[in-house]
Amino acid sequence: MNISVIGAAGGVGRRVVAQATAAGHAVRALIRTPEQADMVSLHGASPVQGDLTGEWETVLDGADAVVWAAGGGAGGNFQAIDGDALIRVADTLLARGPRRLVVVSSMGVDRPEQMPPFLGDVLRVKAQSDAHVQNSALDWTIVRPGGLTDEPGTGLVHVASTAGRGSIPRDDVATVVLACLGDPATVGQTFEVVSGNDAVAGALAGLGG
């Protein structure tokens, strides 16, 4: 599969790149700086330098699927990235393809009032862009992980529409994202994921139950 990763230099994005190339996929990775290009090249991906607030569309060339792993963060320009840019990416995919899109979002998007106050504004912005994707005609999946850690992945997760508070290694989020790309049953699904006791494939298979 030819996969384009947007936000390829971020904590989840670079793990998606590494796992995808290790699995034999061809990866085009959107990055912003030459240093980031060197990093994704080490994993065997093809770096594409661009900016989500400017020119970026060449990363889509030849893609069968797109992974959105970008984010402005609670202290960053989240309106421009988590909000406007994701909406623009979704609209661009509708116009030129590919139709398959997996979005790495965040737990609590549907209940920002229950999350730590410093996350409230970014979660509300994500709610708007997630909804735009959900209301589109794309073949989308939205993955909403809990608190992200740099612990080694275990391959064991808990997946649910509301998973309850918890954390998850970024490695395991990347594993879930790639599993979604290989599982057509995840199209049209929005779910939360934290560390748990279920192997990823089995956890995803239970989404329709």
TrEMBL record:
It comes from the Bacteria. InterPro entries: NAD(P)-bd_dom (IPR016040), NAD(P)-bd_dom_sf (IPR036291). SUPFAM superfamilies: NAD(P)-binding Rossmann-fold domains. Residues 7-184 form the NAD(P)-binding domain. PANTHER family: FLAVIN REDUCTASE-RELATED (PTHR15020), UPF0659 PROTEIN YMR090W (PTHR15020:SF50). This is SDR family oxidoreductase.
